[in-house]
Amino acid sequence: MRLIVDFAQEDIKLLQKEILRSQGIPDKAELSENFEKIYGEAIKLFQELAKPKGIITGVTISRFEEVFRGEGLNEKENPVEEIYRKSSYIALFAVTLGSVLSEKVTELFDNGDYADGYMLDSVSSYAADKLTYLAAKHLQSEIADKETPTSSQRVLCYCPGYCGWHISGQKKLFEALRPEEIGITLNESCLMSPIKSVSGVLIAGPGKIHEFVNSYPFCNTCTARTCIKRMQNLKQG
Amino acid sequence: MELLSQISFNLQNGFDETVAALTKEAVEKQIPPDEILNNGLIAGMNAVGEKFKNHEVFLPDVLLAARAMNSAMEVLKPLLIKGGIPIKGKVVIGSVKDDLHDIGKNLVAILLKGAGFEVIDLGNDVPAEKFIRIASEENADVIGMSALLTTTMPVMKEVVDMAKTEGLYGRVRIMVGGAPVSKEYALEIGADAYSYDGANAVETVESFFSKDS
Question: pLDDT tens across A91-145, in order?
């Protein structure tokens, strides 16, 4: 299976509370008039400029094993290795919001419109993260229809740079996925362009396979900590 | 409200055009430029910084104030230079080689400018030798480096090592920051400080100068 998906922009739900939380702003904070105006303008710009797109390619467990091994720099013990071995379906993926958004953020900063630039960047980062959920949802519906007709399948994503999967794993991931087809490229430092892109693996299987105890040595220095919320969501069904 | 308080008030509210106009008015009224800077602009930025710490305003509000500060500095800077009024300190800043993330670095640069420092922003993808060359040519006080990837962090050590061989180490303070960077990493590579965000970066640079005085 190899899919190129044009996501509908309105499917990326931009929740103000969550976006502000990602900026460290408490839920009950009183926002200035200026702040509200900047936020509104950033949303408008996002809606004008974002072009959400994704690529999803199914792979076998043994093929993924090669991809995951990457440059041999992964943590010796990591949750991804435990999870993918129990999966029922694996797909490599990459999603992007397109290059125009990042260019606009740079333009705003260059023109001295720092607050607008910062807010658009923040909204875009949040949206890129949400886009991975849309990719997971898309795969879930694909495999439910065609390959594993069970409603208990849960699809979650894991990305190089997190959970013990070394960032250099991007190289093998890109070789196997070839997301250049939708305009995503990788530089020597494993940084993707456009910047507002996410790549990794979508792993399908019963919800239980995605549960792990986040007490690996690298968990102490992890700033994302998204596993906590994801595992909570799994338990809530 | 006296003119300098008006400047401070309007700066706190991010009214850049008004701040620039009031700064021109203050210059025309023969108020010394350093007094406009310290008692109008920096006083305003300090007030915003305090509100930011107390969660009364948030980063976009601080950035609006910083823009207002910059618009006033365009009026004031030639007069400060002409009057030989010393700047607070000079910071060379950039995202390290192969790292194209620059939002965090931009925020630090903006906030440092807002706090009255001269900032030379080298942009992103900056090789180690460029940090050293520019810091040396510009007689900078601080080098600030940002990295968002574990793969680009080693460039920070290259800069520290090069500062040692070029005789800048100790004279030029080195500050590092970015998502994968930590206080421990800063210590390990021999940097002078680690900053976890823009406001903390300003405090850190301020602390270099208070230690030096």
Answer: 999 999 999 998 999 899 888 898 999 999 999 999 999 999 999 999 998 887 6
> Which segments within chain A are labelled E, that is strand?
2-6, 53-59, 89-96, 153-158, 185-186, 192-193, 197-206
State the smallest CA–CA distance between residue A106 and chain B in angstroms.
9
CA–CA min distance B151, chain A (Å): 6
Residues in B touching A105 (Cβ below 8 Å): 103
What are the distances in angstroms from CA B129 to CA A187, B39, B122, B188? Answer: 21, 39, 12, 20
Convert the pLDDT of each residue in B95-154 to its tens digit. Answer: 999 887 778 898 899 889 888 899 999 998 899 999 999 999 999 999 999 998 888 889
A&B contacts, CB < 8 Å: 85
**Of A23, A106, A189, which has the smallest distance from its Cβ to B98's Cβ?**
A189
Parent domain of B100: 90-212
The complex's ipTM works out to 0.80
CATH number at residue B161: 3.40.50.280
Yes or no, beta carbons of B13 and A34 under 8 Å apart: yes
Q: Last residue of a domain, which of B29, B54, B82?
A: B82
Domain final position from B82, B103, B133: B82
Q: Which domain holds residue A34?
A: 2-236
